[in-house]
């Protein structure tokens, strides 16, 4: 008999029906009740064993994480919180899990410990919930853009160009690592390398996405990006996934509108698709908050916060206005900010948090940053000082989206590249987009793990990606 | 006024409505008729200029690939093949395209030439059609698996393990390429590298996807994979995208059923979503075929072939049966095969093509290959000689899917790894999946560009990915 997924069974299983279920034992208690999970839902199916007619040997093997196949009949459940249970008629152990060796017993393990068991942690409630929410968000992204007629575009991972002009990159090579071929100048001769030149892992697909926008109109990327930064924080990964929409004929306001609409859509979609996972994560979040000192606790619970973000307009103001707001603020006047607040500086996390969490108590979109602290490709405003940039700042996360209108004027772009020492030879094709049929266009980047962090309420980015990559850490 | 996309306009634009459209000039003829395209569809919108009341200077700038913004009124079209056209009331040039410099004039360019202009080629009819079909196939994949309750899983790109145990890999590193740190043994000291050990770009996410399947039940990956093989063919890329579903409790038959269902779904989905693009590609394919000698032409046109694959069951037979069929075949008896046909050899392209194109005239799934020519992780059959592998072979493409039931028995897996010199230390976590709650499971890999090739009828894999990566080739 074909197996039925537990999610379907709990939702639609008819009393009296004979079914086959397969999954892993979460717990087995009173020698009778198996809590069975198959990953299709956070909820377990209760399977009731007739222990008098089951061999003791078999009962002993019903340990946490043992894989079993069960045939039985659906009954109305006598227990609380579950509509149905299954009366076991045939029980087969597919794979044992020796309780003396299996590391994830049914007790609370720290997330740090679970990271070391990344091959088993999806069997825990918390991680399986996170992965299902991550899945819903990923699908939500494709659905959102697909419904708007965007073309999903695979930009290259291995590239000779470095979009940001900043950020350390990973070198990709096949030459002899110990005795690299050297040229006449004594430097490594990359002509002998696989691609015939030095290449690295992409930090962004934006520049190539602009190619798409300038032909197909609206495009987006969703792929892995890489930063070789030696930062071991709860917010950074060496390998992470980014979504980068790029739209022809969009100005900065269109760009902000799209970013805000997208985030709200994603939050609503996750709440609609994963109510039980988010309910569980909501409770976990509440418990985590309780362990913090009173004055550091969030005002809103996880689900409240999601609903709040979905229901309210993001605050939009310019960088210049934000500087004024910050300088008028209590913490500034009392000298509580660690970093300076004056026009021209890059805002620090403390400033962004003040704006989002204290001043406006909602997501904030800052625009029109000083050109000195932004990338060469951003559209220069008429004031000669600022660029048409936007950063979307989120409570607890900080920058979740960065974007801009792009400089579509060839002369201005070339001048800015010269000023910022961005090599033009490598980007000849990017410049040609401005030479042939240029048009206003805009785009932004969303760090996928940042939105997963926000929606799941998890505290560490390494817990929202299956196999995190960080300095000195590339296990599995 | 907000711009309307040409696709929407052509489908739903109401006669008499005032609209704004933006896009690129495909052609401008008789000083009156602009064929305008904005990438939302392969079809152009005809915009009619009142040339008597338009300055000569402006008319001169209406060159191929110039970006324009047009306000006007929708009229019933007098021309053939189009329902509506637009009477231009306001015309603005957003970006010029000097006809003396713009390389893609409205004539047929070779696909080789277009590859060198990868930043402009999405503006051509053929490439924009390919990219839209590629987009539909990508979304179709997510839709198919999402509707079945699969969890989309991001497996790592940077990895210390090499799933296939074969295939050349790209090294990823941040150590000094010229003077790498050396250990006491005189070898490169990877402890000083970013990840503290040698790592490479993943050739497959399968092993990590198995982690997901053994907890979440049904998962799939869709991400980039890499092969550092020095092969400059029309079928291979150094960087390509793979889809790798992995399912708990699936045997080989379930696996074949899913693969066949998925491919048919994708073909149907593309035909439903991209009828105009595929009609164009169908004509292109027919023209290409005409340039071939009569006896090398395909029997079916592109659309006919897609429909045929969608409508018919794939032929399923074992490797052993296939060897018998081949040895009974005319080309074998006449000594026409270049490579030997005997039990134990890996089938060559000529053999696969014979089976698919001559013997069965439809997709073929071969199963139960000799274990010697397949990977260590495939489930060993009871005969001691074969493994529960499957390859899906397609006309014109060859292998489009490779998969297997996985060996879930720890002892058998360890023994096979020993026999094949696969290091166990690195894969301790993979082995633990068999130690704790193991269960039968299966999966397969679909090379995304292979299915895009098949559906678009293009001849070279470099023309179905925006920025192809191949030996000595990593431009853009």
UniProtKB/TrEMBL annotation, chains A, B:
<dbReference type="GO" id="GO:0004816">
    <property type="term" value="F:asparagine-tRNA ligase activity"/>
</dbReference>
<dbReference type="InterPro" id="IPR004522">
    <property type="entry name" value="Asn-tRNA-ligase"/>
</dbReference>
<dbReference type="GO" id="GO:0005524">
    <property type="term" value="F:ATP binding"/>
</dbReference>
<comment type="similarity">
    <text>Belongs to the class-II aminoacyl-tRNA synthetase family.</text>
</comment>
<keyword id="KW-0030">Aminoacyl-tRNA synthetase</keyword>
<dbReference type="GO" id="GO:0005737">
    <property type="term" value="C:cytoplasm"/>
</dbReference>
<dbReference type="InterPro" id="IPR012340">
    <property type="entry name" value="NA-bd_OB-fold"/>
</dbReference>
<comment type="subunit">
    <text>Homodimer.</text>
</comment>
<dbReference type="InterPro" id="IPR002312">
    <property type="entry name" value="Asp/Asn-tRNA-synth_IIb"/>
</dbReference>
<dbReference type="GO" id="GO:0003676">
    <property type="term" value="F:nucleic acid binding"/>
</dbReference>
<dbReference type="InterPro" id="IPR004365">
    <property type="entry name" value="NA-bd_OB_tRNA"/>
</dbReference>
<dbReference type="GO" id="GO:0006421">
    <property type="term" value="P:asparaginyl-tRNA aminoacylation"/>
</dbReference>
<keyword id="KW-0963">Cytoplasm</keyword>
<keyword id="KW-0547">Nucleotide-binding</keyword>
<dbReference type="Pfam" id="PF00152">
    <property type="entry name" value="tRNA-synt_2"/>
</dbReference>
<feature type="domain" description="Aminoacyl-transfer RNA synthetases class-II family profile">
    <location>
        <begin position="131"/>
        <end position="466"/>
    </location>
</feature>
<keyword id="KW-0067">ATP-binding</keyword>
<dbReference type="InterPro" id="IPR006195">
    <property type="entry name" value="aa-tRNA-synth_II"/>
</dbReference>
<dbReference type="InterPro" id="IPR045864">
    <property type="entry name" value="aa-tRNA-synth_II/BPL/LPL"/>
</dbReference>
<protein>
    <recommendedName>
        <fullName>Asparagine--tRNA ligase</fullName>
        <ecNumber>6.1.1.22</ecNumber>
    </recommendedName>
</protein>
<keyword id="KW-0436">Ligase</keyword>
<dbReference type="InterPro" id="IPR004364">
    <property type="entry name" value="Aa-tRNA-synt_II"/>
</dbReference>
<keyword id="KW-0648">Protein biosynthesis</keyword>
<dbReference type="Pfam" id="PF01336">
    <property type="entry name" value="tRNA_anti-codon"/>
</dbReference>
